[in-house]
Specification:
Length: about 600
Amino acid sequence: MNVKLTLGTGSGHPVSEMILGQNIEMCLTTADGLLSERLRNPKFLGPAHPVTGIAPHWQGTSCGGAAYELAPGTGLMGSEAQLVRVPVPYSSHHLHQNKISVRAGEELECEIWARAWHSPVTLQVTLLPLAARSAAYDRGEIVVDTSYFKRFTVPLKAGRDDDEARLSIQISGTGELWIDQIHLRPKNEPLLCQKLVDEMAAMRIPTLRFPGGIVVNAYDWRHGTGPVHLRRFGYDPAFHQDWYLNYDFGLDEYLSLCVEQKITPTLTVNVATGTPDEAEEMAAYCGAWFARAGGEAPLIYWHIANHPYARTTAHMTPAMYAGVVKAYVPRLKAAYPRSRIVAVMSSGELNAEPEKAAWREALLAEAADLIDVVGVQIYGGCDPLASAADQTQTLGKSLAGVEPGLRAFIKRCRDRGVRWNVGIAEWNWWLQASHWDGRAFEEPPTALHGLYIAGMIRRFATLAPDFEVACFYNLVNCMGILNHRGADVEVTDAVRIFKLYRPAVPGRFVPVDLEGGATGDDATVEALALENEAGRWLFLTNRSASEAARVSLEGVVSTEAKVEGFVAASPMGTFAKAKIKPKDGMIDLPPLSILRVSGRPS
């Protein structure tokens, strides 16, 4: 198909970088992805195995001779500690964990918090292959000689790439000791995974929602402050799943990350197991934290709950939620004046008539002057087994339905004299991940995900500045676009799409019109133009699974423009770098492609 681009009429509006925000939901494996930890259950969360008496993911001596007890209330955090008794000398008395990911030559540090019972205990700490009788990669020795918990460390070096290495903690001779926690981390990475932090920095994330969505219904921000070795580690009741709440990456680390990477904080408030007092204390804590850090307190977006209109552990009526806003917001703003308040609402009420929009109407009637932004959640999806044509057609229809609802909501607010902006608390293309399949809520991004991201960003920019902020779900693990497991960090195509758009914002919207090709809901070619000090940025997408498009750029971008982007062979496939150059003011846009054309205005 042939498509011609022309500059539209009207002055361009400002587009904020906040439309490229991200979300980290602190459930399941997200904390694991943020941390440099290589071990599972490093803090010995119970319950103990009914036969061995050992915490989950750990093992002991296979033929008896040692005794193990996971005793509640005996640890540093008031939780469990693992008691190990070796009454008779024997070479195989040990505590160990298998299937640990290490890389050749990698320098690691094993950190053990332990205390001796009755008399000092000598420990042999060994990193070795899983197979029996194999030579160890490295080992070290410590003497636990205090009656109180103390931190001991042992340096260990990996001998080769191994995703099934074993860490062995062996008592030399006899002895009894309590172990509160054992960590194995790369040297000089005491807490966070540096590879992951570096990838986040490269994305230049403008805002990052924390601690996320449903998990906030059980999340106590206070547990994520102070010394990390004293942080709690327990089960997550918000999801009704056998998942952990890991506070080792907590509010302190989040605020530090925001400062280091110039991220505008977005904090979700617990209105289920939390209270207005707790929220006020959280806001005051943030203010004091930034004061101690020596910088100016930044703007914070406060999301008042996740989606309490849905049947989660925070479910409530519209009138109750209006009451929550009235109870929480004045105290948040008093404790932290530089705030933007985000109330939440079902996307189904955006364009609904008043009699079918009880939540929206309750907020308008009871709390209009307390709210700055109303955030909704929008997810698209299709059958992963459908034909390529059906998948891309469903994608197009899903995108086509986004802008009318948001635009209608903005107009309704303005007509009623309310200056609310609109935003999206969570959004993504959702194909197959589920809470109950035992696969850690994973969904590798496909070309469909990338095309959905591009289509949504175009709509956010079109509606700006009334559309203020959006947080994509999810950044790390758990439907993540950055995946950290073991020794490796995977950077997915979705990350590359966000990085493609990042240099163009903040910017000014440049209206462009398309002539030729399909129109309306059937359009497969879309364009977005933005302009800032770096130049003009033109983004072109072709969602067709089979038909290419020849696009005329004359009058929109200079002929010296640079083209970057991605193209896929199938909707469920992955992207490859596009190798395309403009010729004679034209550019060929392959099927399933996303291109960025950058240069000076023509």
